[in-house]
Amino acid sequence: MKAKKLSFLLMLIFVLLLSACSGGQQTTGNGKEPVKEDEQPKEEEPVAEEEEQTYDLGGRVIKIVNHWDMTPQEGTETGDMAVARWKEVEEKYNVKIEWSVVPWEEKINQLTASILAGEPMGDIIGIDSNQTAQLVQQDYLFALDDLIDVSATKMNQTMKDLGTFNGKLYLFRNEVNESGGMFYNKTMFEQAGLPDPYELQQKGEWTWDAMLEAAKKLTTGSNYGMSGDPNLLAEYLIATNDAKILDTETGEFVMDSPNAMEALEFMVSMINEHKVVKPNEGSTWDDPRQYFSEGLVGMTQGWVWEAEGRLEAPFDWGYVFWPKGPKASDYSTIVSNTGGMVIPKGVENPEVIYKIWEDMQLWEIGQDGIIEWFENVLPNEESIDTATQMLENINVNYWSAYDLSDAFWGTFHSIATAEESPAQAVAKVKGEAQARVDKFMGKE
After folding, report:
1. pTM of the predicted model, to two decimals?
2. DSSP string spanning 65-107?
3. Is residue 73 within 8 Å of residue 83, measured between CB atoms?
């Protein structure tokens, strides 16, 4: 027992001696050694800020061409910012930026001729995805991947996805403003005692079946549940049933897949069996929209930009996703054509041209301007929320860009009118459609 007490006493003395030697300082919780009083901590070397690369293009004129005037205008907060940024960029790169307008119907012919002549009509050109795909196949455009580190651009992933062709980024943009869903007459839904499509949408229950049931109940007297263009109805139903018209990665025509055929059969049943779609009497483009604006139908297909002409409608309306089919797991925004900017082959210093464009954009505003526009043209918070959700649910399939834009004129009409079954109509056009795609992609 005495030995144990002596051992304990010696241990206690040893601990006290250690404490005295350390000057009473405690170690930090991170396990680092304490700083001694006679040692000062070393000052960290300041991190040198990376200098922004400067360019001098010697007063060169940079032309930005589109079919509408893109010149920034003062007079609003955003406009003033854009004009100021324009002048900053001109000074930074020692350039003069000019905007030019070329009519839509003349733009591609002029652009192609100027590229072949070795003198592109502009350094940056505004075109759509159909035109982009054609020019990419002809090797008339620069891919950003070959010029810069695409991962370092200020474009988000959705912007990049919208501008990608054959695995490379050609079409660039500074915002996402895609839409494509369904306008519905809230007043008609309420009067019929139907659940609001937005509420069903938020619960994941806005489906083809729900749409059909609503359309059947709304089809009374001279009113119909829906209006639509068979071409758009077919495209939207195919896309919202996890199907495609064309697999753009493989170049395979796939409109005869089970999911796509199910979509076309559903369209036939809505029009011919249930008779809930109001027949078009003239223009398949204008009639469906006019019917909705006149309060004759409960639902119709449309984009947000169409909302501006409907704010004064004599009834309440809303905007939701196109309902999802039985094979789809989520809602989606169908995009088969969009717009952006490209850099033609033959432009000098194309990597700097892209930097000029990127530096001119008001990235700090982001999507705020788009949301503000939604708030100005849409009638309620539910519709604004839906349009905002659409920006995050883009379903890109540029099938029409592969020389298929006019391949199905009459096909969907013959299906809609039951002149041909979906299987017969699709089988009839499949060979020609595949041949067009193969030629477009140079597979012949």
Report:
1. 0.83
2. EESS------SSHHHHHHHHHHHHHHHHHTEEEEEEE--HHHH
3. yes
Dist. CA 133–CA 114, nearest whole Å: 18
Q: Which class in CATH covers the domain with range 60-177+338-366?
A: alpha beta
Strands 124-128, 60-66: pairing kind: parallel
Q: DSSP class of residue 194?
A: P
Confidence of residue 443 (pLDDT cuts 50, 70, 90): confident
CA separation for the pair 98, 379 (Å, rounded): 38
72, amino acid identity? P
pLDDT level of residue 52 (50, 70, 90 thresholds): low
Q: What CA–CA distance (Å, rounded) separates 251 from 36?
A: 72
| DSSP class per residue in 250-297 | TTEE-TTSHHHHHHHHHHHIIIIIS--BPPPSS-TTHHHHHHHHTT-E
* Beta strands at 297-302 and 224-227: parallel, antiparallel or unpaired: parallel
Note the CATH number of domain 181-336+376-440: 3.40.190.10
Query: What confidence tens digit (pLDDT) does each residue in 410-440 have?
Result: 999 999 999 999 999 999 999 999 999 999 9
d(CA 72, CA 4): 90
Reported as a single tens digit per residue, the pLDDT across 99-155 is 999 999 999 999 999 999 999 999 999 999 999 999 999 999 999 999 999 999 999
Location of structure tokens 């350094």 = 123
The Cα–Cα gap between 115 and 113 comes to 6
CB atoms within 10 A of CB 209: 13
What are the structural domain ranges in the chain? 60-177+338-366, 181-336+376-440
Taking each helix axis as running N to C, give the angle between helix 422-440 and helix 258-268, from 0 to 180 degrees, rounded to the nearest 10: 130
Structure tokens at 14: 């040893």
Backbone φ and ψ for 138, nearest 5 degrees, come out as: -90, 0
60-177+338-366 matches 181-336+376-440 in fold: yes
What helix, strand, coil percent values describe the chain, rounded to 5?
45, 15, 40
- β-pairing, 252-253 with 246-247? antiparallel
CA distances (Å), 11 to each of 19, 26, 27, 196, 270, in order?
13, 20, 21, 79, 91
Could you give the CA distance from residue 338 to residue 171 in angstroms, rounded to a whole number? 10
